[in-house]
Structure formats: C-alpha cells, structure tokens
Amino acid sequence: MTDLGRDRVLISSDFGDYALLSRDEADALQAGGQGLSPTRRMDLAARGLTNVSGAVPDLDEAVRRTRKAFLLEGPTLHIFVVTLRCDHSCHYCQVSRAAVGAAGFDMSLADADAALDRVFEAPGRDLTIEFQGGEPALRFDLVRHIVLGAKSRNADGAKALRFTMVSTLHHLGEADLAFCAEHEIQLSTSIDGASALHDHQRPNPSRDAWARTVEGIGRARAALGEHAVAALPTVTRAALNDPHGLVDTYRALGLRSIFLRPVSPYGFARKTARVHGYSTAEFLAFYAQALDYILKLSAAGEAIEEVYAAILLRHIWSPFHSGYVDLRSPAGAGLGVMVYNYDGLAYPSDEARMAAETGDKRFALGRVDQPLDDLLASPAMSWLAAGAVAEAIPSCDRCAFLPYCGADPVHHAVVHGDPVGDRAASDFCERQTGLFRILFEHIDKGDPETLRTFTAWAFRKDRREVRTSGFVER
Length: 474
Fold this sequence. Notes:
Layout: E1 2-5, E2 8-12, E3 18-22, H1 23-30, H2 38-46, H3 59-65, E4 77-81, H4 109-119, E5 126-132, H5 140-153, E6 160-166, H6 174-182, E7 185-190, H7 195-201, H8 209-224, E8 229-232, E9 234-235, H9 243-252, E10 257-258, E11 261-262, H10 273-276, H11 280-299, E12 305-306, H12 307-317, E13 337-340, E14 345-347, H13 350-357, E15 366-367, H14 372-376, H15 379-384, H16 409-416, H17 427-445, H18 448-458, E16 466-468, E17 471-472
Parallel strand pairs: 4-5, 4-13, 5-6, 6-7, 7-8, 9-11, 10-12
Antiparallel strand pairs: 1-2, 2-3, 13-14, 14-15, 16-17
Helix pairs in contact: 4-5, 6-8, 9-11, 11-17, 12-18
C-alpha cells in the first residue's frame, strides 16, 4: 500500500493487479474490509487484493510463468565492448575513453570468439548481441567478425538472434551500413538537444558533432529504414529548463520516440556530477513537463512515444515483463545481461563495467574464456545477490510499486557501497517511485486521450488501433 497524495492510495498484488483507493477506503480495507461497500469488496476480491475469497491458488507459479518468466531464459542481452577508443570527449561520459590512435584498447579476435561461446551457452532462445565502446564503428571489422561468427554458430536456427549497435554514426561508411542492412543490425545514437547544446556536451575534434550525427542518421535511415535507427538524449542540467525544446528537437529530426534518461552516476560521470548533475526531484519535474507535452502532441494525432513510460506501462498493464533488464527482480545483472569488455574481462552489466573503468574491480566475474556457469557462480555474483531480489529488501517489500519495479544491486553498490544500499536515501528508488507516481496520477485522472495513448504505448500498437482506452483492436 502506497500513499500517492491527494487522498489517494495505491494497492497492488504480487500478480500486478492494482486499485486506486480513497484514504477512507484504504483505512477500511486495512481494518478488514467491512467498511467497504459490497460492490467495492467484490471488485477488490476479484483482483486478488483482499482475502475475501481466500488465497489465489498457485499464485507463485503463475507469477513465475508470467512476470518472472525471464528467470528461465538466462542472460539474453550480450554486450561486446569491441574498443574503448573514441573521438568524442563527452562531458558526462561514463567510461574513460581512449584516443582514436591509442593501442591496447581493442578486443582481440580470441576474446571475441570466446565471448561468442559464452553467448551460445545461454539457455534462452531469443538473444541480443549489442556492440558498444568507445566507438564500435572504429572496429567495424570486429563487428563483422562477431556477427558472422554468431550466424555460423546458429546455422541450425536454434537461437533467434538480434544485433544492435550504439554509435555516433560518424564512422560508418556505406559498406558498413550495407552490412548492417543485410544482417538487420539496429542502430542507436545520441542527440542531446539542439545543435549548440549537443556540440557543447558531446564535443568532437572538428566541433561539428551534431551536424555529423544528423547526417549519419539520414544515411543510416536510407540504408536500413526509418525504424532501424533510434536516438536518445542524456538529460543534463543544461537541458532541464527546456523540456519542450528537447522534445521538439526530436520532432524536427523526424524521430518518433524519445527515451528521457538522467545523467548516470557511474564511472567518470560521477566526477562531473557537480557540473552536469541535479537532484532527482529536479529530474522528475522535468520529466513530468516533458511527458505532459508528449501526451498533448499524441492526443492531437502525432505519432510520438516516451520510451521509458512505455516500459513502465507494460509492467503495470501487462502480466508479462517488458524484457528491460534494469527493472528486474531478481536483478538483471548477470542473470539477464552479460558484458564482454575489450580487455577480456566479463561483467554482469554495463554499469558494472563503467565502475570498473574508474578502478572499482569488485564487479568483474572473470575472463571471457571461462564457462558461463563459472562466471555466474563467481564471488562477484554471490556478493550482488544480497541486493538482487526486491521482494526481500526492507521497504521495497511493502511498496505497492514492487510488482512493476526491480532491484539494481550494481547501482546501490556503486553509490552506497553495498548491493542493498540505503533505500531511504536511494536516488534509484526516489526516481522510480516518482515516475510511477506520475503515471498513476495520469491513470487516476482517467483522461480518455491519455489512457488511449498509454494503451498504445503499453501494447506496442499504433494509437489508431486503440478504439477505446484499454481496448486494442486486433
């Protein structure tokens, strides 16, 4: 049970069913439910939110088959850091980049092949191989090697492979883009805002980062198709005062989705937090304004989506998990994602790898030539397990947002020193509960156009397919 303010209270079940109650109704429910109207009691009982009809049979098994189905899949996201070299010097960078001409910062072929062995030891069928850096396009030959090696290993089609790459797009030539198109490699890049802001935050040697990225988006779209190229911003303090302007930058570029994410507390980003950082409350205020603007545009018929809201809404309205590894319980670190670093070390998440680049070696699982089972049985994984299950963490276990949220032991280990952390002082918890509050406030208000947009986002549908809120036409 969680107080939302304005005399409204959220209650939820392990299965994710929920109800929004008045304070009087919540008090009556806590007193045994006798003070509720018969209709309200029946409604809550039907959702498994009271004990009126007894315990729901086999609830734990039902939850495992739906919300926790990812537990049977093992790591499904496999990140290859093929190089640490990059020609950008982003002010909020999470890792220590190496100069473009530096030696010793590229993954070896032997380590790449060993990491591919680990990928195919994962039990899940649906596997994503993601290329990161540095700038992975600087070693596109290695990207080619890994993609072709993965497909060769998968000649029998036993796995469903998906490839993605995070890149500035500046160094991808036409032959590289043709390879991406042939092998359906989806591309993701960064646009932090209008040109002046982007160039200030993401400087490159020629001081034309924004123009080259926009040009790269155009070339990539022409080669791969519009939906194979995505962009996302990192929201720094400089962007907080103009949420509409950031959204409008994406609209002007023809980008139909935006993932509003705050500055990371990992790696070298922690050293620049004084300049680029801000409080969680400031970010939530920015997010609420940006979301209101996006909802207004959507209601007017514009195809646009806030990606993180869509992820959270899938958790709220669908009995199945979205697949987003940062919001899992047990946590996705190691169990949902593996990172193979350029130096041959394996990590349980990209955030763990970023922390290691600043000297925090607690998260290394071992080397990529060790079997996956050995990496997952490493001391680092055992240490992180203490904070990996949100249902077992004090305060989380009583939060009504728990069925939709997750644990992030790497975050708390970095910020608080241990995987459980201090939830009362956790910016992760403050941000997640704040975002859930924003969404549930909209749900509680019940504006038909907002609910129609939310339904489209939650179920990955075109808004025109939503006849009424909550009803998706097949």
